[in-house]
Amino acid sequence: MHPVWAEATTVRAYVRGIEADYRLCALRTSCAFRTVSDDAALVIAGLIPLRELVRERSELAETAQDETTTASARKLAVRARSLANWQNLWANSTKGQWTHRLIPDVGIWTGRKHGEVDFYMTQALSGHGCFRSYLKRFGHEREDGCPSCGRGVMEDAHHVLFECRRFDEERSNLEETFSPERMVPLMIESGRKWEATGKFVAKVLKELRALERVRNEGED
Question: Which residue has better confidence, 62 or 207?
Fold first, then answer.
């Protein structure tokens, strides 16, 4: 038997309204800019897609009287299917490609035992933040190049976090080889590594924000 409210999710007008609220919840949970895609925002925030939550509740309601398994076992099985479905959606999404490179596996990310994202970490994970390439894309900068690394080098999240010579010293303080493919796995390894990476990211983003303010003041 389906929950009464589940029928409402078959009406597209209702779904759009609910999805808009759910997107806003993901953006607020992760402290993300509104320009971040739904798919990336949900992953960063660790919020299972709304349709999967609806399916979960419906399936659990239908099997509530099943005495062959325990309620906890049913919940675990249903959640495992949700994660598998979400992983498939994420793997095939054309949105949030930078986020996907950093967080390819939603199960590992959402199943971590420590660590919360904040305003600065979300900028790093989404690529939407105080990076000149992002700011130019949305009309807040005239140039997208890195002011420190020479002509033709774009200042995006990848360059700033992993390549830019301005932050070589800070990057060298991290214990391991730092790359897009290793960043999240390192953070998940321990609370200490999560904290160290978070401090590095925050320092970098704060400096970028300070430089942005200086540029803006110079144009006034």
Answer: 207
Bridge partners of 154, per DSSP, are 145
- Domains of the chain: total: 2
Which positions ≥6 away from 151 have C-beta within 8 Å? 145
pTM, two decimal places: 0.88
Confidence of residue 46 (pLDDT cuts 50, 70, 90): very high
> Given the structure tokens 């932050």, which residue do they identify?
167
Domain interval for residue 23: 4-94
Identify whether the C-beta of residue 123 lies closer than 8 Å to the C-beta of residue 116: no
- C-alpha distances out from residue 63 to 1, 59, 66, 84, 104, Å: 8, 6, 5, 20, 32
Q: Which 8-state DSSP code applies to residue 145? A: B
CA–CA separation, 80 and 32 (whole Å): 27
Report how far residue 43's alpha carbon sits from residue 59's, in angstroms, rounded to the nearest whole number.
Answer: 23
Domain identity same for 203 and 120: yes
User: Does one domain contain both 33 and 130?
Assistant: no
Question: 204 and 188 in contact (C-beta within 8 Å)?
Answer: no
Q: Please state, as a whole number, how many other Cβ atoms lie within 10 Å of the Cβ of residue 145.
A: 17
The answer to whether residue 25 scores a pLDDT higher than 70 is yes
134 exposure class (CB count in 10 Å sphere: 0-12, 13-18, 19+): buried
Rounded to an integer, what distance in angstroms lies between the CA atom of residue 123 and that of residue 172? 21
Q: What is the average pLDDT across 52-60? A: 85
